[in-house]
Amino acid sequence: MKRINPSHNCKDELNEVELRATPARIAVMDLLEKTNLPVDATMIKDHLDKHHIDTDPATVFRILNMFLEKGLIKQISFNEGKFRYELANREDHHHLICQTCGKIEDISECAISELEKDIKKKKGFIVSHHTLEFYGVCHDCQKNQNYI
Amino acid sequence: MKRINPSHNCKDELNEVELRATPARIAVMDLLEKTNLPVDATMIKDHLDKHHIDTDPATVFRILNMFLEKGLIKQISFNEGKFRYELANREDHHHLICQTCGKIEDISECAISELEKDIKKKKGFIVSHHTLEFYGVCHDCQKNQNYI
DNA sequence: ATGGTTGCAAACACTTTGCACATGA
DNA sequence: TCATGTGCAAAGTGTTTGCAACCAT
Predict the structure, then answer these.
(1) Any residues with CB less than 8 A from the CB of B124 and at least 6 apart, and which?
(2) Which of B20-34, B56-70, B129-143 shows the lowest per-residue confidence on average (mean pLDDT)?
(3) How confident is residue B1, by pLDDT bands cut at 50, 70 and 90?
(4) Which residues contact A19 (CB under 8 A, 6 or more apart)?
(5) Given an 8 Å threshold on Cβ–Cβ distance, is A77 in contact with B75?
(6) What is the H or E stretch that residue A84 is in?
(7) Residue of B nearest to A109 (CA)
(8) Which residue is nearest to nucleotide C3 (CA to C1')?
(9) Cross-chain residue pair B139–A125, CB shorter than 8 Å
(10) Mean pLDDT per segment of 10 residues, for chain A of length 148 residues?
(11) In angstroms, what is the C-alpha Rg of chain B?
(12) How far apart are CA B67 and CA B30, in angstroms?
């Protein structure tokens, strides 16, 4: 196993949550920080392969579940029959998912917090978090007319 | 195979979208209409078993995919590693998912349409639909104090 | 009658688990 | 050193597919 980029502070981040800084974990953190977009286990595995970090899917999932437990990442689903993961310590944001090319964009504006207060008042339901995703056709795909 | 309740108009609904009205399909429609809440394939299978309609999971999924294609139902995901399904012809609404007891409530108010216009203007992204789900603790579970 | 539907079995994709070996602190 | 992590293989879910038999129209 080789380490991708020893210059990062991923090691410290991991130690902070009492996780040993192994090459695979550092590389996963690295990818999550670089892309800043939701990735799935296969994409992570590919990233590790590319950097000659010899892993198998089980380890990837174990790393992801460990990160989840420690609150480093969030698990999300875009109705694909699998999970995606992204860093947890990001500002409140949501996604634009292009149904033509699959591209995922972030949007940050969100006026849901008032709705949450309403829900507490009217339903007595305490919201801990929410998911809001928009599906449609992105700008590029509209131009390319490769949508129906 | 026995039919659950021949009094329904499910048969007509199915014929309208050019699907043959088989006992299994009628029973699935029936359940979706009765619960009006998102159910998964296992719950549907259980419902069929209970009514002595002898099916297997493959058929349930084939029925659901057929209903999806015809636009009768919607597929949604609550980050459970599986899909749930609910009738499509319902007013715009979202869900409150209790992380303690798993209960799912509907809420209908939704001020997202303005946000969608904004997204079109700022990002050039055309939204076809969105998903918005709230996770938290429901009223009952707060009372029962079986949450942390 | 006949084409759409189903049951069964097998396969598939994604994720988890058990256990022996390897490794970071 | 030694608890924590990993590789490998196997199993567990959820879902799809091929094919012959079946049944709604």
Answers:
(1) A138, A139, A142
(2) B129-143
(3) very low
(4) A25, A66, A70
(5) no
(6) strand A84-87
(7) B115
(8) B20
(9) yes
(10) 50 90 97 95 98 97 98 96 95 91 86 88 92 92 67
(11) 18
(12) 13
From chain A, pick out residues whose CB is under 8 angstroms from the CB of B107. Answer: 119, 123
Q: Cβ atoms within 10 A of the Cβ of B21, count? A: 16
pLDDT value of position A6: 41
What is the spatial distance between Cα A50 and Cα A54, in angstroms, rounded to a whole number? 9
Of B44 and A112, the one with more pLDDT: B44
- Which residues of chain A does B99 touch, with a Cβ-Cβ cutoff of 8 Å? 128
CA distance to partner chain A, nearest, from residue B97 (Å) = 9
* Residue B48 amino acid letter: L
Token pair belonging to A36: 């800043």
pLDDT at B146 over 50: yes
Phi and psi at residue B126, to the nearest 5°: -90, 115
What's the confidence (pLDDT) of residue B8? 53
Structure tokens at B90: 């319902």
Q: pTM (2 decimals)?
A: 0.88
Confidence of residue B145 (pLDDT cuts 50, 70, 90): low
Quick one: DSSP state of residue A41? H
Instruction: Give the residue, B20 or A147, on which the prediction is more confident.
Output: B20
The partner residue sitting opposite B79, judged by closest CB among A75, A81, A127, is: A75
Please tell me which residue lies nearest to nucleotide C10, judged from CA to C1'. Answer: B58
Q: Which residues of A touch B116 (CB under 8 A)?
A: 134
What distance in Å separates residue B102's CA from the closest CA in chain A?
13
